[in-house]
Amino acid sequence: MKDEREKWARVRIIMIGTVFGLLFLNVVGRAFYLQILQHEYLVKKADKQHQHKVDLTPARGSILDCNGTTLAESIHMDSCYAEPRRIKDVDGTAGVLAPILGIPKGELIDRLSVNKSFTWIERWLAPEVALRVKNMKLPGIGFAPESKRFYPNMEIAAHVVGFTGRDPNGLEGIELKYDSTILGNTGYMITERDALGRNIAIKATVIKDSSPGKIVILTLDKTIQFIAEKELAKAVAESNAKGGMALVMESETGKVLAMANYPTFNPNAYSRYSLAQLRNHVVTDSFEPGSTFKVFTIAAALDSGIIKPADVYNCENGVYRVAGRTIHDDHPHSRLTISEIIKYSSNIGAAKIGFKMGEERLSSYLRNFGFGGRTGIDLPGESPGNLKKHMYGIDLATTSFGQGVSLSTIQLVSALSAVANGGNLMRPYLVEQILDDNGKVVQKFEPQLVRRVISQDTAQKVTKMMETVTGDGGTGTKAALDGFRVAGKTGTAQKVDPVTRAYSPSKRIGSFVGFVPSDKPKLTIAVIIDEPQGVKYGGVVAAPAFRGIAQNALAYLKILPNVPTTAAAKPVEAKAVPASNDESLSDGDSEDIPVGSEVMPNFRGMSMRRVLQVMEKRGINIRLLGSGRAAEQSPPPGHKIRGVGEVWIKFAPSA
């Protein structure tokens, strides 16, 4: 019996010992789990309960032009903060800070009276202001280092570079497109909390400084950009226009060397400008190209074998009826060669070539040139333009001479570069390299071929035809350069009124596009003038700016003249439009103005600009020769113009 009791006692002891042993092992295991396996997690969780993180503005990488000139950079500045719970004399502190910081005293009192341990007083103080406040050693007032975006060249290349917000996240341009690349890592400060989660103090040092992002090097050349902006601003001012665009591209590669908009803005103070001024119209806006589009219609027809350079077209003496509509040429001609259709900018000739091409073939070529789709330029908000999927009758005719189709300036220059470089459509691009903060190349961008559009032989033929535009009797003689062959095309397109959705009787877009030197193309340039007043022809308002950009850029690039220079002035053919009616389609290089008096006015002593204005107002067409002020004219004042063999005005430099 006794043995039985001892036996059960041992069993109970073993059972109890086992239970306690298991409990002990459980405690040890739990302790191991919490202290070893979960250590990092629990430490972070504890920190969150008694620490509060204050983010600091991250530094962004610099944006440089192709020569290493800084276009955007982040500079270190002090930001002033307060610890309201440590400030005993709120009124006195606010009174001292208000005149220095330029903040109303009442507003400062409100900021210093909040029930917080941390609040920003003023971000990104000027160095001299920050030093004055620091020297006061005010209780509860401290400073944290932050980065602020700065654009040292102000308006230069503003639309390309873009700008950032206070975050600072990119809001426009390269800053937006490459935001994640340029943006650095965020720094922070730490504030302490008590057991109830209340902020009690702030540490005097920054726990982690913000680190810079990557450096972006552009294809843009600041000097050429400055030239383009200067010439564009001059052209807009002289024509009293609403605005303008200019683009300079390397013909062979698609590199954008300059991209200008006018009016421009200062990205250091972007909030002062309207949204329209901040938008990069070169990329985001589309417009009807007018007669500049004839280049691509004729290039397509030549490449497909539908026409030959020696072909002659009946241009109907300036009036051509199609599907109940009338197409006008501003210069009536009976028969023109293909080259003359470009030289004299014949709508009728281009329309007939379009009809011969047919909808399917013409549409295919135009889309291969990049129209109706985005180019892929590395900027945000690119417009694809508009090219009709189906073109019948009048649509096929109008598309052939640039009406009823819309495109952006970047599309136009990319397509024209394909003619310049021998037929290759290149993807336009703005970023050449991306570097880390140590200057090591992270990514490099090379020229990218999209497709071959036309043959090299076709491109050479079209180039020769475009050279006649800037030659004697062409519509773009103001774009001619001494010592260089220039291939170009003028355009003066009607704008669609957004209210009536019909073509405006007065609003025009004057343009000139071309490439130089045309025998060995280096630069493709476009100048677009929006709503010029007075004379609206592209050959008058845009061609001089093209010439200024080309002349200065070629000199800067050290490209020497390769043809004999001449000081002789070349004749300029002015343009006017015959009588129009509701069913008329205006020429891309002309105005829908009624024919006025056919009597020769007295032009003697007038400037060429004034002569063109009178011609436009009266609806007359006169050949202009020389430069300066009107010295001779034929026929004499008061004589009838019609029936006279030749009508001209000779200009001579004033004494």
Written account of the structure:
The structure is a single chain. By secondary structure, the protein is of the alpha+beta class. It folds into 3 domains: about 1-35; about 55-215, Penicillin-binding protein 2a (Domain 2), CATH 3.90.1310; about 220-265 and about 275-635, DD-peptidase/beta-lactamase superfamily (Beta-lactamase, 3-Layer(aba) Sandwich), CATH 3.40.710. The chain has 21 helices and 26 strands. Strands 2, 3, 4, 5, 8, 16 and 17 form a 7-stranded mixed sheet that branches. The protein has a 5-stranded antiparallel sheet with strand order 10-9-21-20-19, sandwiched between helices. β19 and β20 form a beta hairpin. α12 (about 295-305) packs across α18. The longest helix has about 35 residues, at about 1-35.
List keywords for this structure.
655 residues, alpha+beta, Penicillin-binding protein 2a (Domain 2), Beta-lactamase, 3 domains, 7-stranded mixed β-sheet, 5-stranded antiparallel β-sheet, 21 helices, elongated
In a nutshell, what does this entry contain?
This protein is an alpha+beta fold. The protein contains 21 helices and 26 strands.
Remind me, CATH topology of the largest domain? Beta-lactamase
Low-confidence stretches: 195-204, 567-597
CATH 4th-level superfamily of the largest domain: DD-peptidase/beta-lactamase superfamily
Number of domains: 3
Q: Estimate percent helicity.
A: 25-40%
Q: Quick one: biggest sheet?
A: 7 strands, mixed
Q: Number of helical segments?
A: 21
* CATH architecture annotation name of the largest domain: 3-Layer(aba) Sandwich
